[in-house]
Design brief:
Blueprint lengths: L22 H6 L11 H12 L1 H16 L10 H14 L1 H34 L1 H15 L3 H12 L3 H25 L3 H9 L4 H35 L8 H10 L3 H29 L10
Helix pairs in contact: 4-12, 5-6, 5-8, 5-10, 5-11, 7-8, 8-10, 10-11, 10-12, 11-12
C-alpha cells in the first residue's frame, strides 16, 4: 500500500552519536573505532609510546637520582653527564675505534659459527638422524660448559691474540644455531615431504621449497640467540689481552676510575646489542614474510 509521497516521512536511521572530548584522543590513537577495528598507523604509534614508558621513566629517574641525592654522583653520574662524555668521545673518534674493533671480532666469530652450524644442523637433522641421536648427549654436555672456564684453554691453544677471542665467540655461538637448525629440520611436517616426493620433486627443490622454509623460524631463533651471546661474551674476552674494544674500555675505565667513560661503554654495549637483535629481526621479517599471512587478525 502506497500513500502520498508528500505525506510520507523519510526514514531516519538511528545512529549512535560518538561523544566528543576526552575519548577522541583514544579514538584517533586507534584504541576505539566504529565496528571494533583499529587504525593500524595510529594504533602502532600509540603502541610504541606505551612500550617506551618504562624506558623513559628509567632515564628520568637516572637523571634525577644523583641530582636529588638519592645516588652518589661520584659513582653514578647523571644521564646528561654520560651523554656529554659520549659526545666528546664521538667527536674525538675514540669511541668509533672501540666499536669497530669489538664489532669486527663479534662478526667474525658469529659468521664462522653460522657457516659451520647451519650445514651441520641440516645434515644431522635431516639425513643422519640416527647419528644425531648418538651425538646429542655429547653436544648437550659441551653446550653447557661455561665459556669462561674454556677461555684459558683457548689462550693456551691459540695464544692471547685475536684468534683466541674469535674462537671463544665461535664456541658460544655455534650451539644455539646448531640446535635451532636441528630442531627446525626435525619438526618439519613429514606429510609435506612425502607429498613433494610423490610429485617427483628433486632433492634440491625439496630442500629449497620445503625444508629451508619449514626450518627457517627455528634457525632465526638460534641466530638471534647466538648474536646476543656473541657480543656480550666478546666484552668479557676483551678484558684479557686486548688493547682496544668496548670490553677493554670498561676494564680500563674501571682501573683508572673514569666512571663517566665506564658508563659510556656500558650504554654503548646496550645500544649495540639492541641494534644487532633488531637487524636480525628485520631480516627475519623479510625472509619469513609468508609467515604473517597465516596469522589470524
Amino acid at each position: 500500500m502506497t500513500g502520498n509521497p508528500e505525506t510520507q516521512k523519510p526514514k531516519v536511521r538511528n545512529r549512535k552519536v560518538r561523544t566528543r572530548g576526552f575519548w577522541d584522543f583514544f579514538y584517533k590513537a586507534g584504541i576505539y573505532r566504529d565496528g571494533g577495528k583499529k587504525q593500524k598507523r595510529s594504533g602502532r604509534v600509540f603502541f610504541y609510546y606505551r612500550k617506551s614508558i618504562a624506558v623513559l621513566a628509567f632515564l628520568a629517574f637516572w637523571q634525577a637520582a644523583p641530582l636529588l641525592g638519592i645516588a652518589d654522583r661520584q659513582f653514578i653520574p647523571t644521564l646528561s653527564d654520560v651523554l656529554i662524555t659520549m659526545w666528546g668521545m664521538i667527536r674525538s673518534g675514540n669511541l668509533h675505534v672501540h666499536i669497530a674493533v669489538s664489532f669486527q671480532r663479534a662478526l667474525f666469530g658469529f659468521v664462522i659459527a653460522s657457516a659451520a652450524a647451519l650445514p651441520l644442523g641440516f645434515v644431522l637433522g635431516g639425513w643422519f638422524k640416527r647419528f644425531e641421536e648418538y651425538l646429542n648427549p655429547l653436544m648437550n654436555v659441551l653446550s653447557q660448559v661455561n665459556p669462561f672456564s674454556v677461555f684459558p684453554v683457548f689462550i693456551l691453544l691459540f695464544g692471547i691474540g685475536e684468534v683466541a677471542k674469535i674462537a671463544i665467540i665461535l664456541w658460544v655461538c655455534i650451539w644455539p644455531i646448531l640446535f635451532g637448525t636441528i630442531n627446525g629440520v626435525k619438526n618439519i611436517d613429514p606429510l609435506l615431504v612425502k607429498a613433494a616426493l610423490a610429485m617427483g620433486t628433486s632433492k634440491f627443490a625439496l630442500f629449497w621449497k620445503i625444508v629451508l622454509p619449514g626450518a627457517a623460524p627455528a634457525i632465526f631463533a638460534g641466530l638471534k640467540q647466538g648474536a646476543g651471546i656473541s657480543f656480550f661474551m666478546l666484552i668479557a674476552a676483551e678484558m684479557i689481552g686486548a688493547t682496544a674494544g668496548l670490553g677493554w674500555l670498561v676494564l680500563n675505565s674501571q682501573i683508572n676510575f673514569q666512571i663517566k667513560r665506564l658508563f659510556v661503554a656500558v650504554v654503548t654495549i646496550a645500544i649495540l646489542g639492541l641494534l644487532i637483535t633488531h637487524a636480525i629481526k628485520v631480516v627475519e621479517k623479510r625472509v619469513l614474510s609468508w609467515k604473517e599471512e597465516s596469522v589470524v587478525k
